[in-house]
Write a structure and sequence with these properties.
The protein is mainly alpha-helical. The chain has helices at residues 10-17, 21-30, 48-63, 68-76, 118-148, and strands at 8-9, 37-38, 44-46. Strand 2 (37-38) and strand 3 form a beta hairpin. The N and C termini lie far apart (49 Å). Residues 89-112 have a biased composition (Acidic residues).
Length: 149
């Protein structure tokens, strides 16, 4: 069983929501708020916030009988909260040259810091994700700067 903060594949999300994978991909085209991390080969990894937004969209469409445009309007008006911005594609790229991928998930999964509450672990995970994102942006800016010189 994965941790509550672990990333999910499209297959796992499809199974959890009982929605075909192609529907999830279609929703991505209609709702820009759904922004899974995409890795090599276009594989999607959904954050817990993405899964929660998908679950809310599913309820609005299938149970509350909203149209796609109706749900889009709710999102635009802020009546459904947006998840935080996604990590860039290369945010978890390893520093080594061997091409091994770093694990996606909770950086505090182990017992390296016993006694932390789940809320605090989740907050730290979000901060770590944001730092990785910023590192990636800085790396890309540095690469662009190096190319110009």
């Amino acid at each position: 069983m994965k941790s509550a903060t672990a990333y999910r594949t499209i297959s796992e999300v499809s199974t959890d929501l009982n929605v075909p994978q192609h529907v999830l991909r279609f929703w991505e085209t209609k709702f820009p708020q759904i922004r899974p991390l995409k890795r090599g080969g276009g594989r999607r990894y959904y954050r817990p916030e993405d899964v929660e937004l998908l679950r809310r969209i599913q309820v609005l469409l299938y149970e509350d009988r909203y149209t796609i445009k109706g749900v889009q309007r709710l999102l635009k008006e802020g009546r459904i909260s947006d998840p935080p911005p996604p990590l860039p594609e290369d945010a978890d790229e390893p520093d080594s040259e061997d091409g091994e991928e770093m694990a996606l998930g909770d950086p505090l999964d182990g017992d390296d810091m016993p006694g932390l509450s789940d809320d605090l672990r989740q907050e730290i995970t979000l901060v770590v994700d944001e730092l990785r994102s910023l590192r990636s942006v800085l790396s890309r800016l540095s690469e662009k700067s190096d190319k110009k010189t």
